Amino acid sequence: MHAHTPIHVVVCADFLTLPPSFPSLPSQCTWLSPRRWLNLQEYQSKKLMQESGVAVQRFYVADTASEALEAAKRLNAKEIVLKAQILAGGRGKGVFDSGLKGGVHLTKDPAVVGELANKMLGFNLTTKQTPKDGVKVKTVMVAEALDISRETYFAILMDRSCNGPVMVGSPQGGMDIEEVAASTPELIFKEAIDIFEGVRDDQALRMAANLGFKGPLQRQAADQIKRLYDLFLKVDATQVEVNPLGETPEGQVVCFDAKINFDDNAEFRQKAVFAMDDMTESDPTEMQAAKWDLKYIGLDGNIACFVNGAGLAMATCDIIDLHGGKPANFLDLGGGVKERQVYEAFKLLTADPKVEAILVNIFGGIVNCAIIANGITKACRELELKVPLVVRLEGTNVHEAKRILTESGLPITAADNLDDAAKKAVAAIRK
């Protein structure tokens, strides 16, 4: 079995909504808004692991076919795997507009690597996860192909019940760990990590034994476990998940695939990691939204959603669907929203030609409803809003907000609650 699956990297974000009875917050308070997910290419992730001494396949990165050929020769490996570097999954079954099929290829001939790279670089690769026109490949990774004789699962993650990091492992790797936990819970092993001591030798060796490593491989696996914890601390991770942590026929313990979650609140001291963020494949609207600390995801419907809080945004999408409508987007304003952000959010929503109505659903805890109302009236006038607008406001300063909207003279439909708002938005597009 060959390992040629991507390493995935995401960033976690927390969302906070305070009850409407919560007292007004001082103006000097600063609120961190959720950010877009950090996107790193596979080779960048492997480089981070390599720098912490974690065993990964030997690899080189190439931007031209000639560089790929030279890299293949330098590897001097029995077998080579060539991987197109894009963020989308499903590369192996993708198709290039050069005619080449597959973004991942195995070969024993370095010359073939150069030929394949020539048909990858500069061409668009289309997979199930890319836009229909595909994504242009600018970089390829040339790596040593290794066989896996046994697969295990290992992760380090933050666990609220333990008030800190824990190690979780299973000798059943290479598959969905949730399935393992459900069918054979006795094969899931857990070790809490003391943040002052770190991973002790006896803990690492015990986990390695529980993963099924024997003899010299047990010590080798324990060493990898400690190095993975070093990486966890070094990059301010909230999770490092290795699946599989594999054993090769030659007696090597290798991290073949991993998912690293970063703490976005640590961006100020992880500038080198966040500077690697690859935005070239991101949706332009999502990127524009991120500039204003807005969380935006485009959907296929025609009712635009303008909401504060991720949970409320999802609920709004669901209730629109329940009443026979289709949401055009997921848009979360976050907690510390300003009037300019409201205006920019409306610009994004009205720029979508599919949008036939806009539903504003604000539950103001941290959010001041009056700021939202002022932003809405400014946007409606300056952008000359042409589609029906339904507004539901509740919470902090809501009476002042409703007064602003009423006295604006704008054709705004008020709603008593979310259910009422969804019904009115759906009815508006059916007129």
Short description:
With 431 residues, the chain is α+β, with helices and mostly antiparallel strands. The protein contains 13 helices and 20 strands. 40% of the residues are buried.
Written account of the structure:
The protein is α+β, with helices and mostly antiparallel strands. It folds into 3 domains: 58-144, Dna Ligase, domain 1 (2-Layer Sandwich), CATH 3.30.1490.20; 150-275, 2-Layer Sandwich (D-amino Acid Aminotransferase, Chain A, domain 1); 284-429, 3-Layer(aba) Sandwich (Rossmann fold), CATH 3.40.50.261. It has 13 helices and 20 strands. It has helices at residues 42-51, 65-75, 110-120, 177-183, 201-210, 216-234, 271-274, 284-291, 310-322, 339-350, 369-382, 398-407, 418-430; strands at residues 8-12, 59-62, 80-84, 95-96, 104-107, 124-126, 135-136, 140-144, 150-159, 164-170, 189-192, 237-247, 253-255, 258-263, 295-298, 303-307, 329-332, 357-364, 389-395, 412-414. Strands 1, 9, 10, 11, 12, 13 and 14 form a 7-stranded mixed beta sheet that branches. The chain has a 4-stranded antiparallel beta sheet with strand order 2-8-3-5, with helices on one face. Strands 16-18-19-20 form a 4-stranded parallel beta sheet, sandwiched between helices. It is globular and about 75 Å long. 40% of the residues are buried. The model is unreliable at 1-36 (pLDDT under 50).
